[in-house]
Amino acid sequence: MSYKIATIKGIPIYVHITFLLVFLLFAFIFAISGWPFGFRSVEPPIAGYILACLTALLFFVTLLIHELAHSLLAKSYGAKIQSITLFFFGGISAIENPENEKNMDPSKELNIALAGPLSNMIIGIVLLAFNYFAYGSIFGVPDVANWVTEGLTTFTANIPTMIFLLGSLNLLLGLFNILPIYPMDGGRVLRAWLAKRHSYEEATNTAVSIGKGFSVVLAIIGIFTNWWLAILALFLYISASEEGKMFKATTILEDIDVKDVMTTDVLTVDESMSLNDFINFVFQKKHPGYPVTKNGIVVGMVTVDDARHVNETERYAFTIKDIMKEIVSVHPDATALEAFNEMGAHAIGRLVVLDDEKMVGIISRTDLMTTIYLKDNFKNKSKTKTESETEY
């Protein structure tokens, strides 16, 4: 579950619910850690907690800058940026390649992948350099009590500690992100480098495999040193696996047209149908969603979820027209990948297929998942058969 908090340069910024959990965790760690990694010795304690929360907030602002660096550079290359989402352990920039490019040029992808870690390293160096030149040390001022006795406020006295924390965390973030663990930036750098020498598919598969290997190594190190590192490694391993599956899915779907997988025998419901009749209809036909028609023309879409929001005792007074949603459609010549992206963008499970405003079919997420499953399995069987024939 994500919530929109802002729009920057035309890019919607979202915060996932898991982000709030990790924000509180970071603030707590800063509050209980001693100098120079936290504010445990700050008096009164409430001031330490406020400083910890402010430091955590500013750190996540730098995470947003990291994602903006990726997104704005990609945008300058002609890519479309759907959104940026901050979530547990980082952020994601939803970047779509230009329509005329099947895959991003490896050199451009390399630059985009490096932009994020580079922004963190620059922030880190600038902040630590400021501490050094302003306070005589990258750690700031070690004796906070002296500053207080000289009449400075507790907040002002701890600004150097805040700057040190933000600077060092950004340097660590930049360095960690360039590890060759896909889908982190370092893994994308590796894929871009491999894509210059091999096919994009081979480069992605290799980057995913290497990323999994590094994740296992990190997990083993984490078990003996720091459990947080082990948990992060597990998260990265799962992410690499999911990215590999997603790439396989998009590779399959971009080579298939909607017209080849859509359902042409489409059941529809009239907008005048009562809600009670619609629920009975759903039980009979066993489909969760239907195009809505008026005089034979498609005017909307209705699903079981739409009906569920109406109180059972009031359903007799409603018709489908009262609860239906606007049509989200796709052309039969569009790729299955375009249909998949359209479903994701509108958070829906099916699209009406329109040709010159005439409905020619419907395509659902289930249709796409079945297509991916079948294509992938037949492809693997074909490979196995070819390898067996080669052995003989």
Question: What does this protein structure show overall?
Answer:
With 392 residues, the chain is of the alpha/beta class. The chain has 3 domains: 2-178, no CATH class; 188-253, no CATH class; 258-370, CBS-domain (Roll). Helices cover 59% and strands 15% of the residues. It is built from 15 helices and 10 strands. It has a 4-stranded mixed β-sheet with strand order 1-2-3-4. A 3-stranded mixed β-sheet has the order 5-6-7. The chain has a 3-stranded mixed β-sheet with strand order 8-9-10. A hairpin with a 2-residue loop joins β9 and β10 (358-364). α2 packs antiparallel against α3, α7 packs antiparallel against α8 (200-225) and α9 (227-253) crosses α14 (336-346).
Our measurement of the CA-to-CA distance between the termini, rounded to an integer number of angstroms, reads: 54 Å
Strand order of the largest sheet: 1-2-3-4
Total number of domains: 3
Number of strands: 10
**Can you tell me the overall shape?**
globular
Strand-residue proportion: 5-15%
Rg from C-alpha positions? 27 Å
Main β sheet profile: 4 strands, mixed
Mean pLDDT: 81
Count, helices: 15
Low-pLDDT stretches: 142-152, 386-392
Helix content: 55-70%
Question: What is the N-to-C order of secondary-structure elements (H for helix, E for strand)?
Answer: EEHHEEHHHHHHHHEHEEHHEHEEH
Structural class: alpha/beta
Summarize the structure.
The protein has 392 residues and is an alpha/beta fold. It folds into three domains: 2-178, no CATH class; 188-253, no CATH class; 258-370, Roll (CBS-domain). Helix content is 59%, strand content 15%.
